[in-house]
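Hi,

Apologies if this is the wrong queue. I'm a grad student, and the batch job for dolichyl-phosphate-mannose--protein mannosyltransferase from Toxostoma redivivum produced an output file that my downstream script rejects. I'm not sure whether the problem is my script or the file. Here is the sequence I used:
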Amino acid sequence: QIFNQHNAEAPNFEQVFHRMAQMESNLDHDVSWFLLPSYWAKMVVALISFLCFANSYDGDFVFDDSEAIINNKDLRAETPLGDLWYHDFWGSKLSSNTSHKSYRPLTVLTFRMNYLFAGGFYPVGFHVINIILHCIISVLMVDVFSILLGGLQFSNKGRRLNLAPKSSLLAALLFAVHPVHTECVAGIVGRADLLCALFFLLSFLGYCKAFRENKEGHTFSVFWVLMSVVLGAIAMLCKEQGITILGLNAVFDALVINKINLLELIRKLLYKDKSLENAVLLRKGLLFRITLLMCGGAGILYIRWRIMGTGPPAFTEVDNPASFADSLFVRAINYNYYYSLNAWLLLCPWWLCFDWSMGCIPLIKSVGDWRIIALAALWFCLIGLICQALCSEDSHKRRILTLGLGFLIIPFLPASNLFFRVGFVVAERVIYLPSIGYCILFTYGFSLLSKQAKKKKILAVAVLGILLINVMRCALRSSQWRSEEQLFRSALSVCPLNAKVHYNVGKNLADKGNQSAAIKYYREAVRLNPKYVHAMNNLGNILKERNELHEAEELLSLAVQIQPDFAAAWMNLGIVQNSLRRFEEAEQSYWTAIKHRKKYPDCYYNLGRLYADLNRHIDALNAWRNATVLKPEHSLAWNNMIILLDNTGNLAQAEAVGREALELIPNDHSLMFSLANVLGKSQKYKESEALFLKAIKANPNAASYHGNLAVLYHRWGNLDLAKKHYEVSLKLDPMAPGTKENYNLLRRKLEQLQKKGG
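Support response: The file is valid. Your script probably expects a header line. Output copied below for reference.
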């Protein structure tokens, strides 16, 4: 009768089951934290995650955004969508030797959609999507942490129960406000990590859904297991780390669904215990599910390998110096030091930098280096946690610690240098997913402290203080990511030995016209890294513009000596040699640049200028024609062709070239001006006048435009209009060559006409 009565009150069964399960987990019981309904918990997490990064919404394109977005042809409508599947993240062909082999077509597709919907490169839309993605991921974390911390239980209606509402809220808040995530959210290129994390979590939640008993009474759903594999594949197509979710799903299945004691399992395997046999693996289909996950993962990796090709990505020593060390000991000790730095960024995310390469972290070369202490501390903590995860008698503790370590370590493996060389030393973006494991371990540690503490409210206030500090740090760091100037300067105090930081600060100053300050930073970059060819090239360019030609030549010669295939440095060396009137050497430098970069319109343009200086007019015209074939919008090359043909008396050919150029670049006022001059000489006054007026409308402050229009009117006999435009020209530039003489001639002519008329 009691059993029947309990069944009659079915609406209360879920609450009873929830209470019983919660007592079993016992985690929330010890945590002194806020208890909110699931809906409100998710709203709070969404709001706080939005507030952390909201001030980055109107930031610029910064750092890697230029290459991945602005210079990436895969974003433009004229590039076929199919090309995205054969290009890397930066728009290069995967088969190219220069490709980084970063295969993220779905991320590039979202960039393309941003570009098309916005009608151009407007960063606001890109930033808003990133912020929204982080908010969605943070909200999903409430569900993920409720499973990882509280276990997976369903009610009799098949509804998943949140057995750790307080702990899951705290862990989700820790994740949402972690400052190390700023690079992923405020840097648009971080979209790859955000999309990867989104599908990573959906794959995990889908796998969990497979264990909700269906109407037929089956203990798991093959459909949802396969769906988790598909979502894992999508995560990998957003960023390479996504594939690791398949391994984590297998770990979760073994520990949570099958409640396997790893130490006991290892012991039985070692002693060939007959009681082990296939009971655990086959009774609940664990072996079958792991086989599905392994086959799916192997298939995904094989397809990616076929698309990517067999060649590894080409990285340089400055990108990852430890991986180029000859000694295995030096490589191992530095890799472990990098791991300790990543762990420190999770624990204390105060020193953040957009780039940690190029001498930012000097190599450890002996055991006498004091930084060995960091390695010892890391492994002391890890070994302690692993021992507790394996040997603790508390099954709940074993499960949480193992899952925490799994989510901390497994997503980090692709960035660990263990399987292949990576192109960075430390990168904040790659610990977006591993921070899930950190949040699990932090929350569990907080529950243990709460259990021991007499004044639990003080402990809760301390955690609230950490969250508040992280929110403020996120807001500050987001503001630094809003512009390149702030971002690069913020790195000077964190990585003063990083040559790339000084290079980027110098480049930013040079772009703003502050050449004197830029020279200082470029020199420091070269001092820190004497083989930094890009810094040499940029410094040589500035010195060339300041007419310090001999030092510029030394720097550029050294750059091409260090990197013989550096096409830009060869071209700039040619420009300097041309200015020094060493024409044969300049010509040779230009052709060497073209040899290393066959499609190099700017080099053809400069080669044409050299030939023009040598009166090799046919060669000059051919070089400029090559420039316009490679880059149809190359205005300077078109202009020089028109001017050279005009000066050599080939007016008909000059007119034809001018009309061709304006068809391709219809709004270029300099081309209108050049063609107007040709038409004026051909006595096509009306058409010439129209082009001059159009050019003046586009650029009303160009003295030469008014001066040449005045000459046209002067020839045409419209003397009053000629006088008017001569005067405007002289007002804009009193020293304009020839204009004053022409104006004086016109005035005398007008005076003579007045006398005759009088």
